[in-house]
Amino acid sequence: MGLFLVKAVLFMVIPPLKFNRFLKQVRFIGLQSVVLIFLTGGFTGMVLGFQGFYSLSKFGSDAFLGPMVGLALIKELGPVLAALMVTGRAGSAITAEIGIMRMSEQIDALELMGLNPYRYLVVPNLLAAMICLPLLTAIFDVVGIFGGYLIGGKLLGVGAGTYFGEMANYVEMQDVMEGFYKSLSFGVIIVWVCCFKGYYAGIFTGFGSEGVSKATTQAVVLSSVLILVWDYFMTSILF
Amino acid sequence: MIKIENLYKSFDGNEVFRGISLEIMKGEVLALIGRSGCGKSVLLKHVAGLMKPEKGRVVVDGREMDRAKGRSLTALRDRLGFLFQGGALFDSMNVFENVAFPLKEKTKLSDKRIQTRVLEELENVGLSGSEYKYPSQISGGMVKRAALARALVGDPEIMLFDEPTTGLDPVTGHAIIELIDSCHRRLHFTGIIVTHEISKVFGIVDRVAMLHEGVVWAEGTPSEFSSSKDSVVRAFVGDSGSGEGRFKGGMHEKI
Prior knowledge:
Shape of chain B: globular
Oligomer: heterodimer
Structural class of chain B: alpha/beta
Helix content of chain A: over 70%
Largest sheet of chain A: none
Strand content of chain B: 25-35%
Helix content of chain B: 25-40%
């Protein structure tokens, strides 16, 4: 599995890049996930608004709702939840697509044409995920912050100046970069695991539709677990 | 042209090949027959370099296919065409895009030249008018024709056919065999046709080899096969007759 990632990264930095395929995957992984990210980001922020206000008001610190929502989203919830959403929506589809291509000998056909399957199937996804995941995370964070304000500010009475002003005081560039690094690495994890599981669907999970189904399930579960484990290690390092 | 020497292969302890040796001359078409699961398609994938043997070697025009890597493997594969059992058309592309794909990716031909070449090849296989249909919208016979057009569009020197008539009705199956024959007469490629439908291919091949129990059990011309007295061959060919003879290289050998 490690060799698979090494090869994918190697073919990513060595031209040529299949640009049309890359654009198609940017559209699939990025653009088509925006609505989902809007919804999950918005509701996560709104829940944080409620829970944060409830907890902070116990200590008379409800003025710090903005920094709490902002930091929770930017450092943790944004990257992790956006990555989990992309795993469920795009990662599973990537595994299924590559798995079906493996079962129906389409990957063999590519190889027999003297074409490198990594360049067609893995590199465009990897590059697209590395670009889209940070952008989707940024959308998640912004929508979530406004979701938190909608509840904290409009419903529970925390002023806009307090909410955003305190957030600007406490959220630093380092926090934003932490979220960025996390989302970038989660993009790599999703594509690495999902492409690998699809590429070797026949070998590790059996043949036929059942094999693709198992590969897809394993890809989603393994990606999700790895995202959470890797998140812990990154937090430990960047804390 | 293609030399298979003492090939051994096993899957999960099950020995599929136990020393297979076979030679196919330039311009010759060989039918590879045998019971289901005897390793015909696996042998074809060894010739194409998609699988590696545990022992033995596959030599294509003096170069070892099983040891070739990188550019030398690509160069060898550029001379190959492969018709997969299920066609292996890219399901996200229509017929035209499928046939044009190897030309777009492997050559520097202009779009106009590619279009002319693809339409010409589709006409050769009788698929004019179906250019913009997707693999899911066409019949099994049409999928095979489109896959054949894609395999032939690069003018390969060697063509490998994996069960070209499987899953097709007898009429369509015959049409595919006739198409392979006409393509061979036009392009003079060296070919291996994997099949268990002997009656369909005997008329168009130069030689037949039968795989049985992990070895090349019998080898000869179609007429030698038809008149064979070997019980295994007779059981497979399905004609009347009995005996224990086994022949190889056109010479009947009693065993």
